[in-house]
Structure formats: structure tokens, C-alpha cells
């Protein structure tokens, strides 16, 4: 293990960075959930934008009719 000390230093540095992010209130899961604001009417999956939602709907639910909010996208 030639990188033993460097590995330990890197782990300590990353731990300090994660602790600082926690103290600042930065939560990646909450931020990701906040960005997902379109919900599929069939499977209830969350999508970030209408274009992705339409692609999802056309690929995953081809037999279901397209919802009204996706007609214009």
C-alpha cells in the first residue's frame, strides 16, 4: 500500500467537507426531490421536465392515451 497515508488524508478531508455541508444545511436528496415536479399518471414516477415526462410516457406506457398536459409538448 504505497498510498496508505495519502488515502487516510483524503478520507479525512472528504469527511470534513461532508460535515461542513451538513452544517450548512445542504441536502442532496431534498434538492433532487425538489427538482422533480412532474408525476406520471400511470406509474407515479417523478420527472424533472415535461419533455422527459413525454419520452417516459411514450416508451413505458405506449398503450395508454397521452395525458392532456403532454399533448402540446
Automatic annotation (TrEMBL):
InterPro entries: MBS1/2-like (IPR045230), SERF-like_N (IPR007513), ZNF706/At2g23090_sf (IPR026939). It comes from the Eukaryota. It comes from Caenorhabditis tropicalis. It holds the Pfam family SERF-like_N. Residues 1-13 have a biased composition (Low complexity). GO terms for cellular component: cytoplasm; nucleus. Residues 1-31, 53-73 are annotated as: Disordered. Residues 16-26 have a biased composition (Basic and acidic residues). It is found in: Cytoplasm; Nucleus. Residues 1-37 form the Small EDRK-rich factor-like N-terminal domain. Gene3D superfamilies: At2g23090-like. This is 4F5 domain-containing protein.
Amino acid at each position: 500500500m504505497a498510498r496508505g497515508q495519502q488515502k487516510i488524508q483524503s478520507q479525512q478531508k472528504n469527511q470534513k467537507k461532508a460535515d461542513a455541508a451538513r452544517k450548512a444545511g445542504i441536502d442532496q436528496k431534498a434538492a433532487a426531490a425538489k427538482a422533480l415536479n412532474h408525476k406520471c399518471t400511470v406509474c407515479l414516477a417523478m420527472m424533472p421536465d415535461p419533455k422527459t415526462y413525454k419520452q417516459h410516457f411514450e416508451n413505458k406506457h405506449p398503450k395508454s392515451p397521452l395525458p392532456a398536459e403532454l399533448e402540446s409538448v
